[in-house]
Amino acid sequence: MRNLLQVSGFLLFFVLMAFSPLVFAHTGDGPHNGLSHGFFHPLTGLDHILAMVAVGLWAAQTGGRMIWSLPLTFVVVMGLGGLLGAVTLPTVLAEHGIVLSLLILGLIILRGGYLPRTASIVLIGLFALCHGYAHGSEMPPSVSLFPYAIGFMLATTLLHLCGISIALFLKRLGGIDWLRLSGVVIAFYGVFLFSG
User: Fold this and answer.
1) Beta strands, E only, the chain
2) Which residue did the predictor score with more confidence, 173 or 106?
3) Residue-wise DSSP of 65-132
């Protein structure tokens, strides 16, 4: 009975995420001071939320030093991508990279998360660059870059920690490999965005 309740809660979480108003990302609404706007920006789109959580899932699935090095690499490179996005013109390549990150991260989690360390770091860096570029290019002109960057980096770190926590919880469930199933959900959402 306990496992059934946990599974039901897990499925309810994904259903609520899929049909929430967060799907309508980047409307430009919300707070317009640097720190709070930067913090809430990654939380306004399901694509960003799922990708950030997926990084945490992958890191915990891989284990060892990767549990911290993947999220840390992501946050640092995303900050650099944010700077790049703030000082250059927006490009559609970043949005395509975000969608591709969902698809590939989902498939990696489905496979069990095992890639060579160098390939993992390079891949996570490319995805972070795309996500950071999108955050930086969508920064309102009325806010300062430094607090805005601190805000979106902090929110991203918290989402990574959520992913790590979820992965560790799912590993304890046993039975069906719920962690790999979450990879299917993430990859499916990437396909949905790609086809839309």
Assistant:
1) none
2) 106
3) THHHHHHHHHHHHHHHHHHHHHHS---HHHHHHHHHHHHHHHHHHHHTS---HHHHHHHHHHHHHHHH
